[in-house]
Each structure stands twice: as structure tokens, then as C-alpha cells.
Design brief:
- GO terms for molecular function: aspartic-type endopeptidase activity.
- It comes from Lupinus luteus (European yellow lupine).
- With 356 residues, the chain is mainly β.
- It has 2 domains: 113 residues, Cathepsin D, subunit A, domain 1; 194 residues, Beta Barrel (Cathepsin D, subunit A, domain 1), CATH 2.40.70.10.
- 11% of the residues lie in helices and 35% in strands.
- The chain is built from 6 helices and 23 strands.
- The strands form 4 sheets. The chain has a 10-stranded mixed sheet with strand order 7-6-22-23-8-9-12-21-13-20.
- The longest helix is centred in the middle third of the chain and has 13 residues.
């Protein structure tokens, strides 16, 4: 949301829990993002991890409704709350033309919570991130399985029926975690000696906990980030299932890369094994390998070192072209065990939302 004539832009994060009175010293004249005696909120750039103090602001939010699988009329939230943060914080590290960050985490003034409350929606939202710059994806708020909205997914009910669900844990920071017990490369399991897949107790903050916590679902990392102990074993097992002569010098930030022409037979499937044996998130094809440069394909997983906040942080590249349902009402997350490509679908044609 752009604020004309101001050096501040609207930014919202899942965390806004400070209780501080904000005083603006930048100007003698009040303007958007610069008022005295307003509620101060600590805002954070999820890409750079930098933080700064903004102010609690209120405006009208307009968002498209849906009618079945079609776009419906615009609807409004007349008193939408957000943090108005300094431009240097909200724009840094973000793509061109991006005007801030929209938090989907669970906090009192996050977008999902405000929409659930204002419209009386079921506490559920679904994401489908497009891989292709010229194609649209979608974020849908409310019950995707609503019988009164049974054409939500355009001619693709098989995608809904094939969703696999696993328990969802929400941290104190409002982030979403699921339990992964092992990674499987073809038929080979990757299980570190000390289990960094475990999710810490919800009674302690992740920042305060010395344990390495579970699997974080995040779009702030472009690629999946693994704790160093997992990354070492995982890449060893993966490399043993690939032709050795095809391996080439790694291209940062990746640690394992191959000559694309020498792996024309494809790469082995990678499965995230959940808390139940039948709950498996398969990562393959374009979700697995990244064209890092001309003729070089790299495993799309990054070594996060030994101080990661999660054992696994499932990144945006691995989330692309997959319908992910965050069912907050039932504390579970649903996904397709394979990408939409296995159903002959993409995020752009899964929903017919281009036509009113």
C-alpha cells in the first residue's frame, strides 16, 4: 500500500507486539508515518532481517472476493490496521516495485486474522505460488472446501481430494512449523544422529531455545535452508544417487551442482517424511533443481550453518506450483504430495480468477 508524498510505506509483519508510544522527530508537520503520541510497533524486514520502529496506522483495505472459481466484487475492511515503517526498512532487499511486506503469520493484526474477524471466515487460508513471472498465483482466505463454493478450484477437484494433511504448530512469533521426521532420497533415509527435525516446546521462544526446531514453512527464503548437520548428510546421500562425473564446481549459494547435459536422466526424488508414514511431501523436477547459470543445475537446498532457527526452512522455490492449505482452525497444513504438474495443472490455471 503506497503512501503518496511520504518517505514511509505501509509494511506489515506477523509480529507487532511492542507497547511503546511513538514520537516522530522527522518533521514538524504530521504526515503518514509521522505522528506524535501514536502506538509504536517494531517492524521487521523479513528478507534483510533488519528491524525498526514504525507506527500503528489505519486505512481502508480493498480486496477481491470470489464467486465460485471466478473473481467477485471488491470488498473492504474499513479499519484495517498495519505498521507504517520507514522506507529504508520496508524496501531494502525487496524486488523492484514491491512496496513493503505483507505478513501471513498469526498475530493480532496480521492480514489473515483481520480478514477472518471482519468477514467471519473460517480460520483457513491457501497459497499457490506461480513459478512463472508472467503467470498469476493466488492466496485465498476462508474455507477452500466450502460446499457452497464447490467450484473454487476450477475443474480440479482431484487436487483437493488428494491433499495430504499433517499437524501444524505455530510459534510465539506466529510462524508455521510442521514435523518432519526424516528426508528420503530415493530409498535412502537421511536422519542425523542428533535429531534437529524436532520442534521445540511451545512454552519457550524459538530465539531463546537452544534446540533446533522442526520444519518452518516460509516464503522469505528463496530456497530451502537446512541446518548444517542435515545439509552435510543430505548432500552426501543425494550425490551418491547422481553420476559422479556430472558434478561441477558449486555456484553460490548452493553447495552441490551438476552439468545439466550430463544429468538428462533427471535427479532422484526427495521426500519429506512427516509424522505419519502416509504423509509425504515429494520434491522433484523444477522444485528440486535450480538452473544456477547456463548449463549448470544445482540442488535447490542451502547450508544454513549451525545457528538456524529451524532444522529445515522450506523455502519459496520448493513451495512453487503446490497448493498449500493452512487450516488454522484444525491446526493442520495440507499439501499435494506431488507438485500440481503431476495433475497436469499450474497455479495459474488451477484457479479461474482472471475472469470476473
Amino acid at each position: 500500500m503506497d503512501v503518496p508524498g511520504s518517505d514511509r510505506i505501509a509494511s506489515m509483519r506477523g509480529i507487532a507486539n511492542t507497547h511503546q508510544c511513538f514520537t516522530c522527530t522527522d518533521s514538524t508537520t504530521s504526515r503518514p508515518g509521522c505522528h506524535n503520541n501514536t502506538c509504536g510497533l517494531m517492524s521487521s524486514n523479513p528478507v534483510t532481517q533488519e528491524s525498526g520502529l514504525g507506527e500503528l496506522a489505519q486505512d481502508v483495505l480493498a480486496i477481491h472476493s470470489t464467486h465460485g472459481s471466478k473473481l467477485g466484487p471488491m470488498v473492504k475492511v474499513p479499519q484495517f490496521l498495519f505498521s507504517c515503517a520507514p522506507s529504508f526498512l520496508a524496501q531494502k532487499g525487496l524486488p523492484n516495485n514491491v512496496q513493503g511486506a505483507l505478513g501471513l503469520g498469526l498475530s493480532p493484526i496480521s492480514l489473515p486474522n483481520q480478514l477472518f474477524s471482519h468477514f467471519g471466515l473460517k480460520r483457513q487460508f491457501s497459497t499457490c505460488l506461480s513459478r512463472y513471472p508472467t503467470s498469476n498465483g493466488a492466496i485465498l482466505f476462508g474455507d477452500i472446501n466450502d460446499p457452497n463454493n464447490n467450484n473454487y478450484i476450477h475443474n480440479s477437484l482431484d487436487v483437493l481430494h488428494n491433499l495430504v494433511y499433517t499437524p501444524l504448530t505455530i510459534s510465539k512469533q506466529g510462524e508455521y512449523f510442521m514435523q518432519v521426521n526424516a528426508i528420503r532420497v530415493n530409498k535412502h533415509l537421511v536422519i542425523p544422529t542428533k535429531n534437529p527435525f524436532m520442534i521445540p516446546s511451545s512454552s519457550s521462544s524459538y530465539q531463546e531455545s537452544s534446540e533446533i526446531g522442526g520444519t518452518l514453512i516460509t516464503t522469505t527464503h528463496p530456497y530451502t535452508v537446512l541446518h548444517h548437520s542435515i545439509f552435510e548428510i543430505f548432500t552426501q546421500v543425494f550425490a551418491s544417487n547422481m553420476p559422479k562425473q556430472a558434478q561441477v564446481k558449486a555456484v553460490g549459494p548452493f553447495g552441490l551442482c551438476y552439468d545439466s547435459k550430463k544429468i538428462s536422466g533427471g535427479a532422484p526424488n526427495v521426500d519429506l517424511i512427516m509424522d505419519r508414514n502416509d504423509a509425504v511431501w515429494r520434491i522433484s523436477g523444477e522444485n528440486l533443481m535450480v538452473q544456477a547459470q547456463n548449463g549448470v543445475s544445482c540442488l535447490g537446498f542451502v547450508d544454513g550453518g549451525v545457528h538456524t532457527r529451524a532444522g529445515i526452512a522450506l523455502g519459496a522455490h520448493q513451495l512453487e506450483e503446490n497448493l498449500v492449505v493452512f487450516d488454522l482452525a484444525r491446526s493442520r497444513v495440507g499439501f499435494n504430495s506431488n507438485s500440481l504438474k503431476s495433475h497436469g495443472k499450474t497455479c495459474s490455471n488451477l484457479f479461474d480468477l482472471n475472469n470476473p
